[in-house]
Every structure is written in C-alpha cells, then in structure tokens.
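sry for the spam today, last one i promise. struct tokens for design, 208 residues
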C-alpha cells in the first residue's frame, strides 16, 4: 500500500484549488475523521469530549441513514461535518455524472459546504462543478490508521512528526480500522498538546 504521510508541496501547488491545510500563524491543528458515523464514532466522541477539543467528521450519506442519531450527536457536540459522498465512490473509477449524483444524494442528508473525496481520489472533471457548492478539503498529513501493516506507534508518530501550523490530519471513524485508531487517538492528542497545538474544527456552513 503506497501513500504519502506528508502531502508533497508540488501536489498542493498543482491542485491549488483544493484545500490541503489552513493558513495560520498560530499553533492550530485540525483533526478530521472520515467514513462514519459508525460504531467507533461514539468512542471517538467520548475521547474528544474528555479532552475538550473539536474536530471535523466527513460522513457518508449511507452511514448517516444508518446512524441518524449519532450524526446529530456529532453536530450537537459542536463538531463540524462534511460530505464524504453517499456510497464512498472512488472518483478515479467512475464518470463525472455518476460521481456528482452520488455527492448530491449525500448532500440531501449532510447539509454542509465541505466535501472530501473518498480515498482522496477526486474525479478531476468534477472539480469546477463541485467548487460552486463546496469547499474541497483534503489533508497534508495522513495518519495511516487504515493501514493494517502499521502499528499504533507508527500512526502516532506519523502525525506528531509532521504537524505544522494549520495542518489537516486525516483519521477514520471507520469500524474496520478500530484496532488502530482507538489506541492512537489519545496519544496523538496528548503529543500535540505537549507541542503547544490547539485544536479546531474546520468551519462549515449548512446548505439549504
């Protein structure tokens, strides 16, 4: 499995219309969670509440349909939410119309102006159309919590060793990755706090 832990600057420059990190002169960082809500989401919410920090949850429409109360709980706890498509489509493997329809179906349930493409693989031909409605949010740090070949220690180090002002960190509230994210989350938060970082949710606007 090949992926970047730290998104190269060249990629960020070439795809400058997409948000990879947020500009900040302060030691602020943005934890984001993809794929939920799921059975592991509540456990993550409990950790975040205990540590008094806010994060951003990029949810799939199908999972919101399965866990509507948990989705409401994310919002009521003061976290941000974003659209992660309806069915978690890989944008490199479907045509533009199918891709946009899937996202539009999800937006009926997830009324947010934030969108994150599943797998980070956006349908290139859809970017201009998506930009009219959404802020497209990627990340500059991959935790690797989805990689079964990684240890919790490696996941923690991936985040702590690469964090900068305004960094967006991608994590997952996906039950398939529970064995990595749960033991890693508190040490990540603790380590970032020790480095002087404060935590922010990515601002979003509800769509009508």
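last one done:
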């Amino acid at each position: 499995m090949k992926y970047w832990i730290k998104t190269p600057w060249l990629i960020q420059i070439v795809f400058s219309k997409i948000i990879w990190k947020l500009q900040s002169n302060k030691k602020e960082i943005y934890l984001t969670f993809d794929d939920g809500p799921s059975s592991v989401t509540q456990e993550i919410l409990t950790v975040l509440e205990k540590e008094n920090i806010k994060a951003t949850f990029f949810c799939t429409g199908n999972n919101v349909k399965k866990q509507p109360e948990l989705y409401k709980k994310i919002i009521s706890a003061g976290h941000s939410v974003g659209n992660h498509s309806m069915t978690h489509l890989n944008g490199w493997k479907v045509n533009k119309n199918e891709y946009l329809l899937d996202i539009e179906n999800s937006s009926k349930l997830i009324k947010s102006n934030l969108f994150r493409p599943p797998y980070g693989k956006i349908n290139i031909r859809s970017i201009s159309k998506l930009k009219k409605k959404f802020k497209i949010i990627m990340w500059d740090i991959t935790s690797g919590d989805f990689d079964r070949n990684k240890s919790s220690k490696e996941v923690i180090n991936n985040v702590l060793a690469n964090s900068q002002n305004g960094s967006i960190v991608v994590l997952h509230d996906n039950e398939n990755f529970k064995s990595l994210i749960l033991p890693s989350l508190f040490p990540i938060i603790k380590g970032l706090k020790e480095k002087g970082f404060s935590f922010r949710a990515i601002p979003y606007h509800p769509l009508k």
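Residues 178-194 form the longest helix (17 residues). ok im logging off now
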